[in-house]
Protein: Altered inheritance of mitochondria protein 32
Amino acid sequence: MRIAHPCRSLISAANSHSHRIVSILSFPISRSLTTTTTQTTLTQAPPSAPTTMASESDNLSTLPVANGNVVEDEKFGFRRPEMFTENLAGTVGAYDRHVFLCYKSPEAWPSKVEGSESDPLPKLLSSAVKARKNDIALKTNVTVYEGSEGTEFSDGDVLIFPEMIKYRGLKESDVDSFVEDVLVNGKPWASGVQEVFTGSHVFVCAHGSRDRRCGVCGPVLIQKLKEEIESRGLKNQVFVNACSHIGGHKYAGNVIIYSPAPDGKITGHWYGYVTPDDVPALLDQHIEKGEIITHLWRGQMGAAAEEGGKEDEHKLPKGDSKKNKKKKHEENGTQSKKEEVSGCCQGVNGFSCCKDGSLDQNGVIEKNLNETVAHEKKEQGKLSSWMGSWEQSDVLTAVAVVGAVATVAVAYSFYRRSG
Structure:
């Protein structure tokens, strides 16, 4: 169950005039979203009218105003018309590893920080990974992140998921050796010290110079996440950082969560259209209970793009998704009814492998049939081998013996008659 927490207003309480402006400019109608794959229809409805998507964030009129600017928020923030107009599942490209490079802050990032001549370190790392992509076994994404205040992250530090390892102080002159050792050969970096880190790590796209929507939504979400994390006493368990462009500006706010499972494997789930109202659910439902928030879910690390669209077949190792819970209930309540039952497991690097119970039965039948045919062939092989062992000379000898016996029998018959 989603727990809705009221968002704290981002408008200063001391500025009472701003409150009046917001009231005047706010839309007088509630927005009832009729969602299709391409558009959203706005209709006049009473405040209590239900929406087509069960989410607190769907009621755009109740969301906080980003940066205290109503006009900007209507165009780039959480109230923009494109919010919740598309199905998000399957909007993440396939990848198996994510490398984050700590470098400056969002305010200092150019539009394409990984290709900027004035920022050689991100450019060198991104270019080196692209140049060696055929030599790197795992498809690897490279993203820049900001070292937050009060943390030990600094420029040049590298975080690698799902390995959960960290290297400090990567320099421009070391990029090639780092890529060769760590990403291509899968070995510890000869020029650095490998460290292991833990916890859940949340990355929020706040790359405003690349797209204004991320620049407006990202900082608000980061602030809300930090407030909720602190209120829950999770500062040493959940870490939040701003990151550069990850793809899908129109889905802002964009959030990636990397969390360790009980078996030690790491899951990487992407969310879009995230608003401050959704932050409590990200912490309580996703990180704490291991449940995916399906209507915001874009995809995950380790799954192909077409597989990423099947959100109902994916679950975090910590808990069952709603669909899997329903399947278990049906199995317990209808044992006499034959049905196909599917079970999912989390594979290496986040791959999901599904096994169909009906296929198991067919497999057993096919196996028995194959064993029977093999046995018959074996017996036929023995007969053929026995027949084949008779040489031509053996056959002739047998014929001669039979002929001799017949001759003796005929001679004996004449002898009896003559006697």
Confidence is low (pLDDT under 50) at residues 1-61, 320-361, 383-390. The domain at 97-313 is CATH 3.40.30.10 (Glutaredoxin).
